[in-house]
Every structure is written in structure tokens, then in C-alpha cells.
């Protein structure tokens, strides 16, 4: 009987310890390669429909590039600009245009941070309320037009994002 009681106490202690340390590990939502690709493609296609040659860069929740599409005539420099707009979204958690408007007091300083560009054209990608990445678009004649293409692209996959578990 003592042996059973000791074993039971050991198991109970292990279960309790496991429950207490369960908060030490978190689960995060991540975008699939296919979703990132679809957002990049939809961004380029949305701008192409308006006559703009752009680059779309999709980054994951850490700001690492996950998908890139550069239209045929988009200048190569649009890649860096789009990537840095998406990174600004990851930093702020809001559209890059909102970041620019909300933090105009530090905009110039932020543009000196390597890999961040506070210009219009970046949009967050959220799945069931969690930030899973961002898309940055560059190449249209104005950041507000880049942003429209990014938002249209996210609309095309919104149902997939809404039902992500």
C-alpha cells in the first residue's frame, strides 16, 4: 500500500509540475508557404490590373521573407523597399501608413533603422486575431496605391485567415 501511495504521489507531483511549466511554452500561428505565395501573387496581380509593375514581399511574424514576386518591369530596388515596408508592419503591428501617421514624431529616425522603411504600402496579415505576417508592395506611383494592392490581396485570402485555427 505504501508503495502505491508513493507512486501515486510521484505521479501527482509530476503532473502538477508539468501543469505549472505549461506556461513556459507558447504556441504561435504561422503562415504556410502557400498562403504567403498567394498573398504575394494577388498583390502583384491587383497592381497589374491598374497598370502598375510592382514587387510584393510577404514576411512571416518574425519579419523574415517568406515569399517574393517581382513583376517583369518592376525595378530591382522595389524588392528592398517592399521588404522594408513589411518589416515596419511587423515592428508596429499596423499598416505602414498608420505607423507613419501615428508616429510622425519618430518617422525620420525609424527610416534610419536598418531594414525598416516607414512608407505607405505595407499591411498586416492576421489569422483569427493573431499577426502571422505582413505584405509590403512597392512600384506603383505612390505608396497609397501600393497599399491598395496589398489590401486587395489580403481580401482574396481573408476567408482562409478568418477560419485559421
Mean pLDDT: 90
What is the chain-wise order of helices and strands?
HHEEHHHEEH
**Shape by Cα distribution:** globular
| Domain unit count | 1
CATH domain topology = Beta-Lactamase
Q: How much of the sequence is in beta strands? A: 15-25%
- Residue stretches low in confidence (pLDDT < 50, at least 5 long) are none
Helix content: 40-55%
The Cα radius of gyration reads 21 Å
How does the helix and strand content classify structurally?
alpha+beta
How would you name the oligomeric state of the polypeptide chains in this document? single chain
User: Can you tell me the CATH class?
Assistant: Alpha Beta
Please report the distance between the alpha carbons of the first and last residues.
46 Å
Amino acid at each position: 500500500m505504501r508503495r502505491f501511495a508513493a507512486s501515486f504521489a510521484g505521479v501527482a507531483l509530476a503532473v502538477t509540475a508539468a501543469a505549472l511549466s505549461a506556461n513556459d511554452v507558447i504556441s504561435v500561428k504561422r503562415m504556410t508557404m502557400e498562403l504567403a505565395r498567394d498573398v504575394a501573387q494577388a498583390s502583384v496581380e491587383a497592381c497589374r490590373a491598374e497598370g502598375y509593375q510592382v514587387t510584393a514581399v510577404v514576411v512571416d511574424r518574425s519579419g523574415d521573407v517568406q515569399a517574393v514576386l517581382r513583376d517583369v518591369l518592376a525595378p530591382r530596388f522595389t524588392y528592398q523597399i517592399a521588404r522594408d515596408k513589411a518589416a515596419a508592419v511587423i515592428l508596429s503591428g499596423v499598416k505602414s501608413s498608420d505607423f507613419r501617421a501615428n508616429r510622425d514624431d519618430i518617422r525620420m529616425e525609424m527610416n534610419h533603422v536598418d531594414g525598416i522603411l516607414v512608407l505607405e504600402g505595407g499591411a498586416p496579415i492576421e489569422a483569427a486575431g493573431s499577426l502571422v505576417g505582413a505584405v509590403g508592395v512597392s512600384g506603383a506611383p505612390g505608396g497609397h496605391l501600393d497599399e491598395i494592392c496589398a489590401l486587395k490581396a489580403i481580401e482574396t485570402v481573408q476567408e482562409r485567415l478568418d477560419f485559421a485555427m
